[in-house]
Structures are given as C-alpha cells and as structure tokens.
Specification:
Strands 3-2-1-4-5 form a five-stranded parallel sheet, sandwiched between helices. The protein has helices at residues 3-6, 9-20, 40-51, 76-86, 103-116, 133-143, 168-188, 198-209, and strands at residues 31-35, 58-61, 94-97, 123-127, 148-152. By secondary structure, it is an alpha/beta fold. The longest helix is centred in the last third of the chain and has 21 residues, at 168-188. The protein contains eight helices and five strands; from the N terminus they run ααβαβαβαβαβαα. α2 (9-20) crosses α8 (198-209), α3 (40-51) crosses α4 (76-86) and α5 packs across α6. α6 links the parallel β4 (123-127) and β5. 38% of the residues are buried. The chain has a single domain, classed as 3-Layer(aba) Sandwich (Rossmann fold). The chain is globular, with a radius of gyration of 17 Å.
Length: 219
C-alpha cells in the first residue's frame, strides 16, 4: 500500500489546499481585483484590504459561473460590490465587470474595462478563494503578462474553510478539478505552466481513486 492510500481524505485534501496557496506578502498596489465566486468571504476580504489602504480601487469581476448559477439574484460582481459597500467601501471606489463567466474572461474583460477607463495598473492584488489562488495566478499571467500580481484570499485553513453550505464534499471535487487544470491548461494556452510536487500529484490521484471526480475535465 503506498503512502497516499494511508492518509485520510482530509490529509490528502490539505496537501492540495496548501499547494494552491501562493503565500504572497501583500504591499501597496494600484488595484484590488476580486474574482467572482460562490463565496462572499472573498468580497469581505477584498473590502478589508481596501479599508487597510492597500489600493485606491476595487474591481469586482464576474457575471455567473458554474458554481453560482441560480445562487445570486444579481451578477457575482454586483453581489460582491454590495457586500463591500456594506462593509464600508465607498461606491465611487468600485468598478464592476459583469460579463465574465470564467477566470480567463475575468482577466480579459477586466483588462478591457480598465482600458476603457484609461487605467493601466502596474501592481494588482487579486483576491479569490484560497484553493483557487494558484490557478487564478497562472491564468492572469497567461492573459496579462508583465504585471506584478499578488494573490490574496480569506485567511482560512483547510479545517476552517468549510461551512454548512460549502461542505468538504462540495469543495474536495472542485479542489481536485482545479489541480487537474493546473496540469492540463498550459498546453491549451489557458495558464502558464507551474510545477506540481510529486507528493501533491500523488494526493490528487488518490482522491480521484476515492471518487472525488465531479469537477474533472476530459483530457
């Protein structure tokens, strides 16, 4: 029996979770770009970073995606903006990109929106769910190279992150699918390549063997 097979599902998921975190040290930036999702804690964290004075503007990006269809009344961007305003962010500091339906479009459409406003930020703080930091980073660097990108997410560990509505049974297949995409998407031109440690890939394969396959893509 190999080592991954001896680990609990929690321990395997935590290996993937920790790999997905970029560990960037945040510093003053030109823009906070918050990518829409099914987790309002992303909007809260983006607002908190703004209120700490880390950037003069927030751009919320997202229309609807696979995980938010039917969940929000408004677009992801508008829903996130409402959360930020309730947290104390002035509406005039917020830009909205409400067309995108995936991470690549988040970057492409945000880039076009900023250009339309005469803005070309040099340094971004990109806010996403913890387990999507690395994938969002790789996607950004493919779609808008040459920028200084700092990834951020709600500061939650694997054990702290799940909720009654975002359970481990929901999150683990997404986590598995995102790692697969980090392996496959560079060849498709969607992301920059990133090294995946053997221990992390072995954990991925064991989770697939245990049936967490709901968000895998066909190779």
């Amino acid at each position: 029996m190999n080592a991954p097979a001896l680990l609990t599902t929690d321990a395997l998921a935590e290996l993937l979770w920790d790999y997905m975190l970029m560990g960037h040290a945040l510093r003053a930036s030109d823009l906070i770009l918050a990518l829409g999702s099914n987790d309002l804690r992303v909007a809260e964290h983006a607002a908190d970073l703004y209120l700490r004075g880390l950037a003069p503007r927030i751009l919320f990006s997202g229309r609807v995606g696979a995980l938010t269809r039917g969940r929000f009344v408004k677009t992801e961007a508008e829903t996130f903006a409402d959360v930020a305003v309730a947290r104390g962010v002035p509406p005039e500091a917020i830009l909205l990109e409400t067309r995108s339906t995936n991470t690549g479009e988040n970057i492409q459409f945000s880039r076009a929106l900023l250009a339309a406003h005469g803005l070309d930020p040099r340094r971004f703080i990109v806010v996403q769910k913890p387990y999507m930091e690395r994938r969002a980073y790789a996607t950004f660097m493919r779609n808008w190279p040459g920028k200084d990108i700092l990834m951020a997410s709600p500061p939650l560990s694997w054990s702290e992150y799940p909720t009654e509505t975002l359970t481990k049974d929901i999150i683990i297949p997404i986590l598995v699918g995102d790692l697969q995409r980090i392996r496959l998407y560079p060849a498709k031109g969607f992301q920059i390549p990133q090294e995946i440690p053997d221990t992390v890939w072995a954990a991925f394969e064991e989770l697939v063997a245990r049936g967490f396959t709901g968000h895998l893509v066909r190779e």
